[in-house]
Amino acid sequence: MRSEAAEWPEVVVVASGINVLAGIWLLVAPYVLPGLAPAWNEIVCGAVIFVLALTPVTVAWRVPALSYVNAAMGTALTITGFWSNATTGAVVGDVLVGLAVVLLALLSANARP
User: Fold this and answer.
1) How many CB atoms lie within 10 A of CB 14?
2) Max CA separation in the chain (angstroms)
3) pTM assigned to the model
4) Average pLDDT, the chain
5) Cα 58 → chain centroid
6) Alpha carbon of 26 to those of 30, 40, 58, 67: distances in Å?
7) Cα–Cα distance between 94 and 90 in angstroms, integer?
8) Average pLDDT for consecutive 10-residue bins of the chain (113 residues)?
9) d(Cα 72, Cα 82) in Å, to the nearest integer?
10) CA angle 102, 106, 111 (to 5 degrees)
11) Which whole-number Å values give the CA distances from 72 to 43, 69, 79, 106, in the listed order?
């Protein structure tokens, strides 16, 4: 039987790890998906989300403030996705990825030993 203290870092690492993948997706999606022009919104948010999510995965899983800032970036992506994109698919993509980042970042930030 695993102790709850052993599960706490795993929650942080898994949630932040998925956010690392979300950041990577935001960075490459404009170049991979046909018809999407590279937008500053995805590039900036993707880079910040990637760096902020990578830190708890690698060295600072006891610092919930990074996850709260990542949740704020997900919120910014969700809100700005409505006016920074020209296509409906891009808007839906930004909103869904933004909401996932917010939820996973809050899960990571609120994990306690």
Assistant:
1) 15
2) 51
3) 0.84
4) 83
5) 15
6) 8, 10, 20, 18
7) 6
8) 58 88 90 72 89 82 84 92 76 90 91 73
9) 16
10) 155
11) 16, 5, 11, 10
